[in-house]
């Protein structure tokens, strides 16, 4: 009996040691995973901050990130909005951050001395990351997609309808404390806008799986019926890959 008890004790002790080694190994692996995840998260945060820093010269120090509530604005549609639904998602527009920026001087070809013509007041920029499902030539974004992006962003700068924030007295086109051109110029709140003319200049191919900056600036507003805008898409080397001059018509309903 004593021999059997000793044998059982030895087997129990050996089993206990195996369990402890397994638990110790599990804890060690869990610690390694946690450390690796922390390092990875920190690395991605550094990359994001570094990427944002690349665009600082374009955005300017006064740039304010906008909360446009796109999902809320589109959720009641029975169809799909082309840029923000059809062209968004993994492999398409994977991320897009839009900023209200300080407007700078505009190099224009016409004088503002013309009757009923006023200086524009709005400038927005967007940092946009795209995948490889929006291509024309292999590895290069389709020109029709870039045209649609510029069309959508020029419309955004002209006529963004935002959610009321903080109080009902706040103008509905103010988003994140910033007004788009419609509110800034006190244009007809019940009117609609339509693209009348878009002149595009494709200067460099845009590679897929890359990040770009989209810039839109309202040049001038004429007789509260025509809104003229300049737009461009820049790569990380500050090359203007696509430039556009756009005219929107303000049409009363």
TrEMBL record:
InterPro entries according to UniProt: HotDog_dom_sf (IPR029069), PTE-AB_protein (IPR052061), Thioestr_dom (IPR006683)
Gene3D superfamilies registered for this protein in UniProt: Hotdog Thioesterase (3.10.129.10)
Pfam families documented for this protein: 4HBT (PF03061)
Top-rank taxon: Eukaryota
Domain Thioesterase: 139-237
Protein name from the UniProt record: Thioesterase domain-containing protein
Organism: Effrenium voratum
């Amino acid at each position: 009996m004593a021999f059997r008890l000793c044998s059982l004790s030895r087997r129990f002790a050996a089993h206990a040691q195996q369990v402890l080694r397994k638990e110790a190994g599990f804890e060690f692996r869990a610690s390694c995973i946690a450390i690796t995840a922390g390092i990875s998260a920190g690395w991605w945060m550094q990359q994001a901050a570094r990427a944002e820093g690349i665009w600082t010269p374009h955005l300017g120090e006064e740039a304010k990130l906008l909360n446009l509530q796109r999902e809320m604005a589109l959720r009641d549609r029975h169809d799909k909005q082309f840029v923000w639904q059809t062209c968004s998602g993994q492999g398409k527009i994977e991320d897009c951050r839009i900023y209200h920026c300080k407007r700078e001087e505009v190099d224009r070809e016409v004088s503002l001395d013309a009757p009923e013509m006023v200086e524009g007041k709005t400038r927005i920029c967007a940092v946009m990351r795209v995948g490889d499902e929006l291509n024309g030539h292999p590895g290069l974004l389709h020109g029709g997609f870039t045209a649609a992006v510029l069309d959508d962003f020029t419309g955004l700068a002209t006529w963004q309808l935002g959610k009321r924030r903080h109080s009902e007295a706040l103008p509905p086109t103010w988003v994140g404390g910033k007004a788009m051109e419609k509110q800034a110029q006190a244009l007809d709140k019940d009117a609609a806008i339509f693209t009348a003319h878009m002149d595009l200049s494709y200067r460099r191919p845009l590679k897929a799986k890359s990040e770009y900056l989209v810039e839109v600036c309202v040049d001038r507003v004429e007789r509260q019926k025509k809104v003229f805008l300049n737009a461009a898409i820049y790569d990380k080397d500050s090359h203007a890959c696509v430039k556009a001059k756009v005219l929107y018509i303000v049409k009363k309903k």
